[in-house]
Amino acid sequence: MLVIGLGASFPVSTCRIKRMRSLFISGNMLDNSSLNGKMLKELFGKLTSLRALDIGNWSATLCSSILDIPRNIEKLVHLRYLNLSSVTLIRKLPETLCELYNLEKLDISYCINLKALPQGIGKLINMKHLLNERTDSSGHMPAGIARLPSLRTLDEFHVSGGRRKNEHDQLLLEALQPPLNLKELFIGSYGGNTVSPSWMMSLTNLRSLNLRLCENCKQLPPLGKLPFLEKLYISDMKSVKRAGNEILGIESDHHDSSSSSSVIIAFPKLQSLFIEDLPELEEWDYGITRTGHPFIDIMPRLSALAIAVCPKLKALPDHIHQTTTLKGLSIWGCDLLEERYRKGEGEDWPKISHIPNIYINYLRI
Question: What is the mean pLDDT of residues 164-190?
Fold first, then answer.
């Protein structure tokens, strides 16, 4: 392994390191030099035994000469890890990258000008992790990405345009099959009609979930079944009109003799809930709590709740009114809620007045 940095000049002679397995270049430590495409081409031609190449996280000055990735990257046939994160000026990746059949992890996060991924990305049959946070390429996902058999991590996916967008997104989401020990999941700019892939309820170690810009989804998934979920963010879901029993993951007729003697807990570990920009959301209510099942406990550990830009939402559910664990409630951009819970005047002000910290339109009351 070679780490270049701490005042080293570049390029480093490669005549005696052809068998090098790992190369990590600490760009912010190089001495008055910028890495560029010509240097990369030289590296790719000589270091053909590399398993790991890290040229990411460069400072803006030092990576300013990297405008593209040379086509001869295909020579790195043994490469398993490639980090290009924050190489901000590259606009595309060469199709020859798709010849790296052993590649398991590709980090292109914060490559803000990268417009598209290679069309042949489906060839990367051993790819497990594609890290693409804050990357414009998310808007141009090739169809082949849904066929990657080993893919476990995909930070963001935004599939653009077309009549088959919904179907494409749903196939892609279903194909991900993340590891069962996943702790954080972000699903953004998703065009499918449902955001409940078959594997989601298997993520029993999930702590944080962010659902954002799932504009075609009309129903929320049964997230109450996730046993260790602590933080839930739901935003920009413009087709959701009601949040009811389905989000708890409890059927309305679930009150047979086997369950009548035990408490069913939905969202047992949830501590923070943030709901923003659901403009059509009118009701947040659970009919099951009125159907004779006395053994349902909902969000027993919730301590922070924020609701923003939900102008049609009429009221909070009863379990929010009754909770004794809630320490902070924030409401803004929700005209009906603001009227209903106005301090001393709103019809349901007495139901929330016990909460220690209440903010309405950013003002503490």
Answer: 77
Angle subtended at Cα 256 by Cα 253 and Cα 257, rounded to the nearest 5 degrees: 165
Give the per-residue pLDDT at 271: 97
Backbone region of residue 347 per phi and psi (left: phi > 0; alpha: psi in -120 to 50; beta: other values): alpha
Q: Is the pLDDT of residue 315 over 90?
A: yes
DSSP letter string, 316-355? --HHHHH-SS--EEEEES-HHHHHHT-TTTSTTHHHHTT-
Q: Is the pLDDT of residue 159 over 90?
A: no
Query: What span, in angstroms and rounded, lies between the C-alpha atoms of 167 and 186?
Result: 20
DSSP string for residues in 185-251:
EEEES--SS----TTGGG-TT--EEEEE--TT--S---GGG-TT--EEEEE--TT--EE-HHHHT--
State the Cα–Cα distance between residues 116 and 134, nearest whole angstrom: 13
CATH 3.80.10.10 maps onto the chain at 1-156
* CATH class of the structural domain 1-156: alpha beta
> What does the pLDDT average to over 94-112?
93
Two tokens at 328?
A: 């902070």
Distant-in-sequence, close-in-space partners of 11: CB < 8 Å, separation ≥ 6: 39, 42, 43
Q: Helix, strand, or coil here: 254? A: coil
Q: Mean pLDDT, the chain, as a whole number?
A: 83
pTM of the model: 0.68
Q: By the 8 A CB rule, do 75 and 51 touch?
A: no
pLDDT at 264: 86
- Do the beta carbons of residue 267 and residue 241 sit within 8 Å? no
Topology of 181-365 in CATH?
3.80.10
